[in-house]
């Protein structure tokens, strides 16, 4: 906060959340956000106040009821947030959140919030200028999560009804005005079949902001800088592309076959896919070492197309050509999600990845890295002795006789 004031005195714009400019702590800000949401007519989940003294939390939990979330006000990206399904799990969750607060340098305070069963996690990106003019962009659906981190994001949400979207859009102007946002913000909601709840406002450009860039053609980072520099919002709604569909995935250095354990180490080979509507962003290249001390995200991949079905197809093709060797990654798991009937048929309930049974169900529909390698060896052997290469490859791509050969020769030695 002192830095922000000092820079302002010297005529330098500081791109930071509004709460810093207003001098509010994260604790004060959470209370402020809920009050503004209620004034705007948006429901909030039952919750406690924010406490530094965590000894009062068991009694607060009884008033709210289980299951509930244990959160730090600065919680984001799966950090400093845990679920407690019963009183027995509460203290463990509190201790875990406090340890993460200390590790990441956050204020060591906690609040409790009632959790819902399988809500959809819907975020509306907005841009606002200093004069109060704002623009709301198509929503992002980040409901497929694991450990409260988004694995997959879609925009627009194929699950959000026209009525629910219209209701949120009608409430957003009052919420935006009350918040006094300048620049970019992501306004988050839980949406169930019958209810809409305000969750949070994030005023830093989010990891998946590229989804909005790709869908609309608007450079969110450029607009963020312009608006914080004092420029007016010049975008016009009719000049922004809003058709089509974008799917985005995080590829992490984690082993989905071992409870998503971290998989640090040297990347022996890394090959990015390419194609129409495919965007890959990664700070890593072949030969780099992934440390266990930092964020596990190796890459972000996005696919844009005119329809959801085509975007899924493009993403499947891209993932089949994405190669990361030397460490375990979530690539096989993500391939399984895209092929899952519930995902394809819009029957996937929100935040389902928190459950081990669901993870195993997804992995049963894909081939492990070891199976992929052995099938590739069989394909190479077959190609070297059979002149009808095109037929062999066509069968391989569709899980034909090469996979049948593999499954009948799991003990094959090379």
From TrEMBL:
Class of the enzyme per the UniProt entry, highest EC level: ligase
Keywords annotated in UniProt: ATP-binding, Biotin, Ligase, Nucleotide-binding
InterPro entries: ACC_Biotin_Carboxylase, ATP-grasp, ATP_grasp_subdomain_1, Biotin_carboxylation_dom, Biotin_COase_C, CPAse_ATP-bd, Rudment_hybrid_motif
GO molecular function: ATP binding; biotin carboxylase activity; metal ion binding
Catalytic activity: N(6)-biotinyl-L-lysyl-[protein] + hydrogencarbonate + ATP = N(6)-carboxybiotinyl-L-lysyl-[protein] + ADP + phosphate + H(+)
Coiled-coil intervals: none
Residues of the Biotin carboxylation domain: 1-358
Pfam family, one: CPSase_L_D2
Domain ATP-grasp: residue ranges: 34-229
Gene3D superfamilies noted in UniProt: ATP-grasp fold, A domain (3.30.1490.20), ATP-grasp fold, B domain (3.30.470.20)
Enzyme Commission no: 6.3.4.14
Designated name of the protein: biotin carboxylase
């Amino acid at each position: 906060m002192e830095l922000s004031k000092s820079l302002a005195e010297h005529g330098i714009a500081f791109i930071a959340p509004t709460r810093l400019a207003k001098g509010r702590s994260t604790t004060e800000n959470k209370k402020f956000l809920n009050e503004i949401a209620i004034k705007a007519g948006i429901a909030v989940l039952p919750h406690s106040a924010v406490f530094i003294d965590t000894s009062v939390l068991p009694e607060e939990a009884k008033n709210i009821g289980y299951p509930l979330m244990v959160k730090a006000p600065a919680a984001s990206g799966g950090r400093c947030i845990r679920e407690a399904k019963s009183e027995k799990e509460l203290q463990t969750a509190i201790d875990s959140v406090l340890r993460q607060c200390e590790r990441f340098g956050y204020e060591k305070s906690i609040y409790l919030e009632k959790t819902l069963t399988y809500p959809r996690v819907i975020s509306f990106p907005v841009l606002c200028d200093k004069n109060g003019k704002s623009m709301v962009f198509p929503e992002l659906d980040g409901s497929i999560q694991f450990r409260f981190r988004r694995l997959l994001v879609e925009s627009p949400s194929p699950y959000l009804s026209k009525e629910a979207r219209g209701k949120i859009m009608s409430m957003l102007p009052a919420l935006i005005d009350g918040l006094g946002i300048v620049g970019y913000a992501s306004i988050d909601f839980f949406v169930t079949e019958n209810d809409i709840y305000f969750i949070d406002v994030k005023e830093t450009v989010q990891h998946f902001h590229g989804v909005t860039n790709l869908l609309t053609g608007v450079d969110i980072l450029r607009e963020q800088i312009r608006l914080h520099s004092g420029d007016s919002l010049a975008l016009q709604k009719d000049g922004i592309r809003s058709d089509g569909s974008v799917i985005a995935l995080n590829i992490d250095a984690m082993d989905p076959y071992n409870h998503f354990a971290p998989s640090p180490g040297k990347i022996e080979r890394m090959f990015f896919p390419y194609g129409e509507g495919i965007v890959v962003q990664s700070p890593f290249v072949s030969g780099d070492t992934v440390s266990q001390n930092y964020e596990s995200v190796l890459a972000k991949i996005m696919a844009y197309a005119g329809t959801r079905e085509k975007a899924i197809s493009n993403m499947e093709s891209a993932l089949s050509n994405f190669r990361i060797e030397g460490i375990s990654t979530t690539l096989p798991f993500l391939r399984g999600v895209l092929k899952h009937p519930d995902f394809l048929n819009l029957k996937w309930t929100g935040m389902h990845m928190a459950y081990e049974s669901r993870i195993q169900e997804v992995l049963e529909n894909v081939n492990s890295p070891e199976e992929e390698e052995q099938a590739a060896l069989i394909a190479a052997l077959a190609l070297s002795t059979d002149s009808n290469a095109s037929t062999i490859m066509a069968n391989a791509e569709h899980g034909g006789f090469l996979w049948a050969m593999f499954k009948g020769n799991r003990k094959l030695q090379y």
